Amino acid sequence: MRVTDRMLYDRATRDGGAARVRLERAVGVASTGARLIHPGDDPAGAGMVTRHLAAASRADAVAGVAAQASDELAAADGALDAVTSALARAREIAMQFGSAGHDAPARATAAAEVGSLLDTMVAALNTKVGNRYLFAGMNDGAPPFTAAGAYLGDARERQVEVAPGVWQAASLRADVAFTAASGGVDVFATLATLRAALAANDQAGAAATLTSLAASTDQVATLRGQAGIAMSAFDTAVTVNQRAGDDARSLSAHLTDADAIQANTELALAQRALEASLTATSKSFKLTLLDYLK
User: Taking Cα atoms as reference points, which of 96, 102, 132 lies closest to residue 114?
Assistant: First the structure.
């Protein structure tokens, strides 16, 4: 087959064009540090990048919500610590004034202190973080306890996702720990009984509350234990999901970011390829011109 000038021109155009495209691509990669700029650069890789970034976003969201839940539980534990201290003081008062040797004025003063302890406990259990009351179950937009200690929250538990399809309770059952709804001791009723007994100078009545006060302390301790377990689960979820997000971003970067040495090597090769193409084209057309001059 005879090689015509047109064939040489077309071949030179194709080779030169391909060399220029390669050089432009190499220049872009070397200057931006990005190997994958447009989906067309690597359709399969672009799809994987989208999946990795979506996974990173999901992991970040789970970590953020878990961290918030852990912070709220830490605040709840602080409130329960105040309640525990108040109950400990109430037991001391019941033991002291449930024995002989105290007159009516002394017990009246103790009754006033128990009233202050009640107020302290109600304030602690009406703690909120942001716009959420921590001990109200899912009814977390209103204070869960009245001034008298009546519970106004509900029995539902707020759940937070800690891993895909895995959920952890993020609220504490104050109705179980502080009322008799689940067969336990009504903590506030016990303190009200103690206060009434002291105000009436009823030694035996004050002493009779000691058993219920001990049970109240145990119920609060159980709730604090549940808070600690939940906090540990959320803290672990934060760590695991942060690592998962970092790993996903790393995989995405591996697909999109160029290796500096490889990028510069490709740039040099692309420059040489274009120069070689231009040189070959120039020589071919010189030979063709000489053929015409012969």
Answer: 96
